[in-house]
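Structural biology now treats backbone shape like a language. To illustrate, our science desk offers a sequence and the tokens encoding its fold:
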Amino acid sequence: MRLKTIIAAASALLLLTVPLFMWPRGDEVPPKQPNFVRLTGRWDCVEVLDGEYRVCNNIWGSGAGVGEQVLDVDPAGTYFKVVKTTHRSNNVAAYPFIYKGCHWGHCTRNSPLPIKVRDLRSSKSSWRIDVRDVDGTWNAAYDIWFSPRGASSPEGGAELMIWVNRGGGAMPAGRKVSTVEIAGLTWDVYYANLSWNYVAFASRVALESVELDLKAFIDEAVRMGYIDPEWYLDAVEAGFEIWSGGNGLTTLSFTVAVEKD
């Protein structure tokens, strides 16, 4: 009995003196991985893969419900993860994304963009994401920008989105105008007239890994009259529009290769 008492006392003392690992609460930011870059500012961006791509936090929304957002980025690859958001908005609060091309005057290295749409031979892209157990209202979507003058404001140009996944009842802007088959999948097409043409192709099935030639979507938008072949393709972006929630949204890898005739 005396030995058991001593062992019990020692065990209790050990529990008191050794700190227990605690998972961070929902409003806390988890520890950053070594060598990762953490983005916290509204417009924070970082070059990755020696400038071949760029990742941006991009909290562009305004008004009630737009909160904090923290992004962890691997500068040696194309991985990035939303590790914290406090958004609770009825509209899009943010679009953390990775891109190749020119975004508001910031152009990535070794990119052929901008190029005229009529000169585009192919725009092949792969994108792998992890959206398991992510709550809130959000999408995972390409955002492809076109302008009349090249690497300029999209006003008078076009924005082409490709929605590959979504949660919480997120819907594209505008109204549904068509349904098309591209890359063996069915896509509902939405259109809105902003100060540019907004076109969104929304997959009817949730996807977490895609390999697409984006030119097929561009050609369809040209055929429908939403993109002028004399306009310039400025940037190919991929990321997550977030209305609310969104903690854990992750890009595992992303590539895009643009070729011109």
